[in-house]
Amino acid sequence: MARLAGDIDGALHESTWSHFPCAIPLRPPTDTNGMGRTPGPACAAHTLRPANPNPTAQAENPDLAAPAAHTDLPAWDRWFELTRRGSTLGTEFRGGLVTFFTMAYTVVLNPLIIGTAADINSNYIGGGDKPVVAIGLVAGVTALVAGLLTITMGAIGRFPLAIAAALGLNSFLAYTIAPLMT
């Protein structure tokens, strides 16, 4: 049988407002409803707060309030909100460096898969009959697209996410589809 909300030993209990256990100490029992338990929430965590009728208004909780405009921060920090997110320029730089080296294999592997597949006329990507030229073209396009999309995601989206060509369908494209195409 579940403990009633009036227990004051601070042990896990079931609140009348929730089915989840709560380890927050309970308030002293007061029997105001004649049922032997406290009415309403059993602990501070289960206290219902009315919804803010104006969601654009500043939150009552200072932790949730929008930060004041920091005009003393550099422009790049105001744009990317590094300080607000608890990051620094050095941390973001190291993260970008690690991400680059983690994803750089696509600039090598993608051309080796796609650039060496000939079409039905024995031509490689770019219309040549030499795979060296095709590998160079695919490597250039892979690096260019990955760089532009990553910069766009960072500068416009303001989110540190690297975007590059995925290698999941490259073999299927190179060895099943490309030989059937002209």
Structural features, described:
The structure is a single chain. The longest helix has 25 residues, at 131-155. It contains five helices and two strands. Strand 1 and strand 2 form a beta hairpin. It has a two-stranded antiparallel sheet with strand order 1-2. By secondary structure, it is an all-alpha fold. Mean pLDDT is 74; it is low at 1-20. The radius of gyration is 30 Å and the shape is elongated. The protein has helices spanning 75-80, 89-103, 105-114, 131-155, 170-177; strands at 13-14, 21-22.
Present the secondary structure layout:
Blueprint: E1 13-14, E2 21-22, H1 75-80, H2 89-103, H3 105-114, H4 131-155, H5 170-177
Antiparallel strand pairs: 1-2
Helix pairs in contact: 3-4
Structural class estimated from helices and strands = mainly alpha
Tell the overall outline: elongated
Mean of pLDDT: 74
Radius of gyration: 30 Å
How many helices? The count is 5
Strand proportion, as a percent range, falls in under 5%
How do the SSEs run, as a string of H and E?
A: EEHHHHH
Uncertain residue segments: 1-20
Helical content, roughly? 25-40%
Please tally the β strands and state the result: 2
Numbering strands along the chain, what is their spatial order in the largest sheet? 1-2
The N- and C-terminal alpha carbons lie at a distance of 74 Å
- Tell me the major beta sheet: 2 strands, antiparallel
